[in-house]
Amino acid sequence: MTWLIWNIRGLNKRYKQKEINQYIKDKHIKLAGLVETKVKEGNAVKIIWDEQVYTVQLLDKQDQFIQCLVTGKQNGMYCYLTVVYGHNDADQRRNLCENIKILAQNTKGPWLIGGVFKGILTIQDKISKVHVTSADIKNLDKLCHDIGIIELPWRGDYFTWTNKHQGVDRVWSRIDGMFGNDMWMMNYSHLSTEYGEPNISDHNPMCINIRQPRRLSKSLFRFFNIWACHLDFEMIIREEWNRNKVAGKMEKIWVKLKWMKRHFRQLNEIEFKGVAEKIDQARQTIYHIQSQM
Hints:
- There is one protein chain.
- By secondary structure, the chain is of the alpha+beta class.
- Helix content is 34%, strand content 25%.
- The chain has seven helices and 15 strands.
- The protein has helices at residues 14-26, 90-105, 134-147, 182-188, 233-241, 249-271, 275-292, and strands at 2-7, 29-35, 45-49, 54-62, 65-72, 78-85, 111-116, 126-127, 149-151, 154-156, 161-162, 172-173, 176-181, 193-195, 206-209.
- Helix 2 (90-105) links the parallel strand 6 and strand 7.
- The mean pLDDT is 84.
């Protein structure tokens, strides 16, 4: 069973509706959050689901998000789901962040937040002729730290949106994402986001294959010594260690290490992807050479 979150411009067009229906059928999607910025009426965010598989209770609905409680009828799934569409206007996006902080105060359980945030987390998340500044990453990064959410593991294209222009006017950006709180990670850390091909949209679809929950599963995170040789290594350590968001000493250390893990995973994906496989290949090569001696 798969969940989908996708920004589709022009969803009112019949051919796009046909393609969406086929996509949902082919991918066996049982719950979908669809974002349409040019709806004829109502909210830009829509949630549809298979009533034989899930019960979905609407909790809050505003122009930039929908919050609901999802309960699985077959697989024991139980979580809060927020589907987001951030406006182009920076002031409205700041308002979105404040509203999500309010949601966090009343969300006591596994929480998945996904959609189009229109903000980025790192300088590497955008390529354009206009240089990225710290102000471009401030709002989303601060939101993640303030409410304790982290980006889900993922695979597929790094950039989730492009303006499709040519030459120097081309812009690539990672403005779509899926995030979970601590309880989501404790229960569903084995789930990852798959970014598909844009198809009929200028945004990549985000899919999660929902499997049986795994309680308190061990982290798949592994530290590679080669990271310490990277130019950004000390900066990551320094920035995260200087954050003081938690009162308790041991909890403060735990939070700092958890956020470092997110940065190191991103660093590994960009700079050292496949290093574990390369190490295994080198080890097998050594074994083969030694066996021939």
